[in-house]
Amino acid sequence: MDKVVFTDVGPRDGLQNQPRILSVDERLSLIAAVAAAGVSHIEVGSFVSPKAVPAMAGTGELVARLPGDDGVHYSALIPNRKGYELARDAGVKTVNMVLYASEGMAQKNVNMSIAEAEQATRDILDMAANDGIEVVAAIATAFCCPFDGPTDPGIVRDIVARFIDSGIRQLVLADTIGAANPLQVRALTRELVEAHGAAQIGCHFHDTRAMGVANVFAALESGIYHFDGSIGGLGGCPFAPGASGNVASEDVIMMLEQMGVHTGIDLDALLRASDLAENLTGTAPGGRAKAWLGPWLAKQQEL
Amino acid sequence: MDKVVFTDVGPRDGLQNQPRILSVDERLSLIAAVAAAGVSHIEVGSFVSPKAVPAMAGTGELVARLPGDDGVHYSALIPNRKGYELARDAGVKTVNMVLYASEGMAQKNVNMSIAEAEQATRDILDMAANDGIEVVAAIATAFCCPFDGPTDPGIVRDIVARFIDSGIRQLVLADTIGAANPLQVRALTRELVEAHGAAQIGCHFHDTRAMGVANVFAALESGIYHFDGSIGGLGGCPFAPGASGNVASEDVIMMLEQMGVHTGIDLDALLRASDLAENLTGTAPGGRAKAWLGPWLAKQQEL
C-alpha cells in the first residue's frame, strides 16, 4: 500500500449528471484546476450524441484545447465505433469503453447484449492497436444492476479473464449505482488480484449509500491501487433520486494521505478544484471531509 | 460477523454539540423514536453541570421518565463522583465514564491527569459494584488528540490491559475528533481483540473526515461487534469548525444490514428517528445514506 494511481472522472461522470450544463471554457477551467492539484489521470468528457447528453457537447473542441505537454493522462469515454473515430480524430490518446456485467444495463445504456458490447469493444481494441491509442474499459454494474439486481461475481470474473490479455490497459470494476458494500468489494477484488495481479484492475465507486470511502479501503486491502473519484463528489445517479455521485476525490485522497499512501496530489489545490466544481455547477454536492479539511489546511499554513 | 450490538449516543454526544437546546420532552421523544427502531442501547444524557453543558440540564428528570420495562438499555454519562451519585439516585442502571489516552484531553476535559481520571474511575467502579450499577468507559482520544497529536497505540493497549478485568462492562475506543483512519483502526482493534477477545471492546467513531463508515468496517474485520453511532449524524466537534458529528446511525446500520450482519434494527423506523432529530435540532446534519435510503424504502413498500 505505498502508491495509488488516481483518475478524476468528475469532468465526465460528474458533469453529465449535473442539472447545469457547463460551457467548454468552464469545463476546461475545472480540468485545469484538477490537473493543477497533481491528479495524473483525468477523464475529460465523452464522445456521445449531444442530443442524448447535452452536457458533453463540444468534447472534440475541449480535447483540442487541452495542454499537450503537461504530463497528465487525459481520457475520454466512447460508447461505440463512431465515438471512437471522433475521439481519435480529436487527438484523444486514451479511450474509455464500457463492458457490462448485466444484460439489463447493457440494453438500457447501449441497446446491446453483453456479448454485442464485448464484440464492439474487441473491434475498437483492434482499431486502437493500429492507431496507437490506449483502451481502458469499465465493467458497468460490477456489483449490482438497477434492473437485474445483485451481480453474480462469476460474471465479472469471466469478463476480466476474457479481456485481461486483450491489449486493454485497465479493467475498472464500476459500482455504477453505488450499491456495493465493502465485504463484497473485498471478496471480488481479492479474487481478481490473486488471479491477475493488480496492475490492470481498477475500482470506481459511488457514494450513494455512504460506503464509497469504505469500499476504497476494502479494495486497497486487496491490493487494488487504481481508483476513480470525482472532484467535489460531482455526479448523481439517474436511477436513485437524491443520491450522491461518485465518491469525492478529496475524501479518497485525504484518507489515502492520512494512511501514508502517497498519491502525489496536493490536498489544498484539490480543495480549490472542489470549490470551483461547486461554484460552476451550483449544486455543491461536496466531499464529506471538506468541512474539516479546509480549516485544517488553513491552520497548517499558519504554523 | 453475524451480530452487532449498537448504541445510539445521539441523545447525549449528539445533542450536547447542537446549537439548539432541546426540552426534556423533546429529548424523550427522540429517545423513544430511536428505541422504536429496535436500537437496544441508548445513551440518554449526562449528569454534568447545567452551567457547563446547558443541553444536558434535566437529565435526572429525563431518566425518571424513561420507560422501565421496554428491554432497552439506557445509559448516562458521568464525569465524576458527584455525577455518579446523581445518576444512581435518578435510577440509571449503566453509567458511562471517560478514560483518557492523552494528557492534553484529560486536563482540558476534566482538569485531571490520565492517572487521576483512572483513579476516579476505579473509585466509581467500587461504588457501582456495591450499588449493582454497570460501568462502561470510553477511552477518549484513542487515536488522536487535538492537543497532543497522534496517540501512541501502546498507551491504549495499556489502559485496556489495566481495566479489562476491573469489573467494567465495556471499554470503548473513542475517536473523539474523528481523526482515525481505517489502517490505524484495523491494527489497534486486531491487537486488542487478539489479546482480550471482543466481548468487552467497542468502537466510537466520528465522521469528521469522511472515514467513519470505513472505520466501522475496519473494526468489524478485526472482530469488534460493539459500535456507537448517532441518529442523523448529530454531533459536531468543538475543536473542528464545520466538522460533522458522530458517524450516523443510519449509515452504519444500512452498511451492516447490506453486508448481511443482523442488527435487529428497522431501517425505516430509524430513518423516521433521523428525520425527527433533524426537525428537533434544526441543523440537519443527516446521515450520508439518507438521500438514497428514503426513496428505496418507499419503493420496497410498494412492491
Automatic annotation (TrEMBL), chains A, B:
Q: Which PROSITE patterns match?
A: PYR_CT
Q: Which Pfam families match?
A: HMGL-like (PF00682)
Coiled-coil regions in this chain?
A: none
Q: Which GO terms describe its biological process?
A: ketone body biosynthetic process; L-leucine catabolic process
Protein name as it appears in the record: Hydroxymethylglutaryl-CoA lyase
Write out the similarity annotation: Belongs to the HMG-CoA lyase family.
What keywords is this UniProt entry annotated with?
Lyase, Metal-binding
Q: Which residues cross the membrane?
A: none
Provide the GO MF annotations for this entry.
hydroxymethylglutaryl-CoA lyase activity; metal ion binding
Its domain of life reads: Bacteria
